[in-house]
Amino acid sequence: MIAISFLGTGDYTETEYRHEGKSFKTEFFPEAVYHIFNPEDLYVILTPQAYNKHYDNLSKRIKFNEININTGKNEDELWDMFNSVVNAIPENSEIIFDVTHGFRSQPLFALAIIIFLKTVKNIKVYKILYGAFEAKTDDITPIFDLTPFLNLIEWTGAVNEFIKYGNANNLRDILSNIQDSHNKSNEDKLTVAKNFGNNLGDFLERLSFLRIHSISKPTLSDLINNLSKSISLIEKDFEKDKSLEPFMSLFSLINSKIEPFGSLTNKIFDIESLKVQVNIVKWYINSNQYQQAFTLYREFLVTSFCIKSSLDPINDRDIAENNIHTFIKKYDFKNSENADIHKNNVHYVIVKYFNDILELRNDMNHASMRENPNPVKSFVNKSKNLIPEMNNIIENYLY
User: Is the domain of 217 the same as that of 271?
Assistant: First the structure.
């Protein structure tokens, strides 16, 4: 583990820094970090002015690696500072980042470095520290752990990834880490977070692979019900830790994305479950999962044809598809007059919708391995019709 500290030009006052039963008396917080946290290496970030004022004194007390930066008087110098720190930190490091003696914009600068290094150099953040001299009592200065604020940034990003792209992998990992980290140092254990993350991840994996109909337990419907129940439980769970309270407001966003699936039942061909399938297709489109959207839309049309033909939606599916292709040969869909003539014919409407996406869907599922494949815009434009067409069938033709 390595530690990174700032050293400024202030006239620092000696105080006893304390953290979780350990303490050290010094005017230099990097020295307190060195003795309280025992890093394998300590890096101290210094401007020329800080070097001239404090380097000799600090270097006589502890061993550290210096990272020399400029004063950051303009944007170019700020980027030079950024690069100096980033280049000095080894890959795959576990780090403590101390912002106590950071000057002006340097704490924000440090946060940007941390987020950047986590991606570029795969660092792991053990703690972000602040020696709160202004909060001292009887010459005891507490050391604040600011790491939860970094966690909040990562958590917000994970929720955003879930909402925009339908991916809950990071969210699942973060919830697992939150529960494990809390339970290591608290008697009042978290019990719901990890299970919620696993269920959410399982649910989205089922959607990703179009596992709408499943006879295995838990079914997709079971997972949705479990998630809905867990939302209120996890909010109570997080009340056990003050640092987790801000996270709770993000659960309303998660819940708003789960709610449209709430009426899905294990009878996936009843009207309520078909309505949920509309919401699933909408989810696919909104999260740019167009192939899944077109695939489920096609299967929705086959299911609708089965229902209106008194065919079993599972066992008679091949019969329905053969009939659909027979109808495609029968009707001239290019003739606009036919649309008016057959507008009340449910089989005509379903088969027309099916025919409209047949070529696009085949092009997509066969990876454009054909002459004159469709441009991406064709799929995006057609996707705008899927939801209105599904709603039209449900509202005007089924049941």
Answer: no
- Total structural domains within the chain: 3
6 in the Ramachandran plot: left (φ > 0), alpha (ψ -120 to 50) or beta? Answer: beta
Same domain, 238 and 159: yes
Measured on CA atoms in the order 256, 258, 260, 265, is the torsion positive or negative?
A: negative
267-326: pLDDT as tens digits: 778 888 899 899 999 999 999 999 999 999 999 999 999 999 999 999 999 999 999 999
Q: Which residues pair with 65 in a beta bridge?
A: 43
Residues 261 and 395 in one domain: no
Quick one: which of 192, 218, 193, 220 has its CA closest to 208? 220
* CA neighbor of 43 nearest in space, from 60, 62, 16: 62
Q: What is the 3-state secondary structure (H, E, C) of 344-372?
A: CCHHHHHHHHHHHHHHHHHHHHCCCCCCC
Which burial class, exposed, middle or buried, applies to 343 when counting CB atoms under 10 A from its CB (0-12, 13-18, 19+)?
A: exposed
CA gap 265, 282 in Å, rounded: 18
pLDDT tens digits for 126-171? 999 999 888 888 889 999 988 888 888 888 899 889 888 888 899 9
Q: How wide is the angle at C-alpha 167 spanned by C-alphas 386 and 383, nearest 5°?
A: 15
Q: What is the pTM of this model?
A: 0.77
Last residue of a domain, one of 118, 145, 172: 145
Residues 332-361: tens digit of each pLDDT: 777 777 767 777 788 999 999 999 999 899
d(CA 110, CA 28): 19
Task: Find out whether 183 and 189 touch, Cβ atoms under 8 Å.
Answer: yes
Please name the residues in contact with 44: beta carbons below 8 A apart, sequence gap of 6 or more.
4, 5, 6, 7, 30, 58, 64, 65, 66, 67
Cα–Cα distance for residue pair 54/49, rounded to 1 Å: 9
Which residues form the domain of 316?
Answer: 267-399
CA 256 to CA 361: how far, in whole Å?
30
